[in-house]
Write a structure and sequence with these properties.
Length: 279
């Protein structure tokens, strides 16, 4: 996606940038005409001439005044290059725990480009690991300069684009409760106990995109002309007594996992039975 270098001090590491994430389960939907089921087509029309415009006649324009545009060409974008266009220049090393998670955006892998940068790449990666620091600087991707953080992840260096400070909205306009406002110490104690009960080692493979799975099941049933039967979503009780809700949550969390699973399975069987009976 990008070739350049990492620069810190007088050390330069030639690298290549690769995507670190993908969405394999994304379902794509098309807009259709309800009357006959045909696809809706979007065309590029000139508002002045009221006619379709081919791609080779389309340029990029910036509206500097209402209704007035200045056209930028590929050469103009080339001239706009800054040092961050070709290098990620680390301007500061900061503690990984000092960066608010709201600033992080999209992660990318960096790999050494050619044998010349392998040693410096490994040195920087291991130094960041041992010091618990991340390198912060800027990089230009897709005609936009991004703040970014560089950190080790196993044997790879990961560069994560970040939001600038002015892009983070302040919560001051929200009606938020003050710290330690409204609840009792016993309720806080119960909350601690509930958190302890649900505490587990982080395993991302335990979390699944169940919404997409249900949508796929619905789509398959509609294609076959079958009645849509999916597990019912249990209704959550309304919280009227916070302490009672915490105590009941604790009791539920302490039940053996097998019993909880059997209850869920029984609920699903009852839902399917109701659907079959209705059919």
């Amino acid at each position: 996606m990008w070739k350049g270098s990492i620069a810190f001090g007088l050390v330069t590491v030639p690298v290549s940038l690769y995507a670190a994430t993908e969405r394999t389960e994304k379902l794509s939907f098309h807009l259709l005409h309800e009357k006959d089921g045909s696809r809706i087509d979007y065309k590029r029309f000139c508002v002045k001439e009221d006619e379709e415009v081919p791609w080779d006649e389309i340029v990029k324009g910036y509206e500097h005044r209402k209704g007035q545009y200045v056209v930028l060409t590929d050469k103009d974008f080339e001239k706009a290059k800054t040092p961050a266009t070709e290098a990620f220049d680390i301007r500061a090393f900061v503690s990984a725990n000092d960066i608010d998670s709201r600033y992080f955006d999209t992660p990318y892998y960096l790999a050494p480009s050619g044998k010349a940068g392998v040693k410096a790449y490994a040195l920087l990666r291991d130094a960041l690991e041992e010091t618990g620091r991340v390198g912060v600087g800027t990089i230009v991707l897709r005609q936009r300069e991004h703040l970014a953080a560089l950190e080790p992840s196993g044997e790879a260096l990961v560069l994560t684009t970040m939001r600038f400070a002015h892009e983070i909205r302040s919560p001051r306009s929200l009606d938020l409760p003050r710290a330690k406002h409204g609840y009792q110490p016993r309720e806080m104690k119960l909350a601690h106990q509930l958190i302890d009960t649900l505490t587990a080692k982080w395993d991302p493979t335990e979390f699944k995109d169940t919404y997409t799975d249900v949508l796929k099941k619905i789509i398959a049933q509609k294609v076959k002309g079958e009645e849509i039967t999916v597990p019912e979503v249990p209704e959550r009780p309304k919280v009227t007594d916070l302490a009672k809700a915490l105590r009941e949550s604790l009791e539920q969390g302490r039940r053996p996992a097998a019993k909880l699973e059997s209850r869920r399975a029984a609920g699903a069987r009852r839902a399917d039975a109701r659907h079959r009976k209705a059919a």
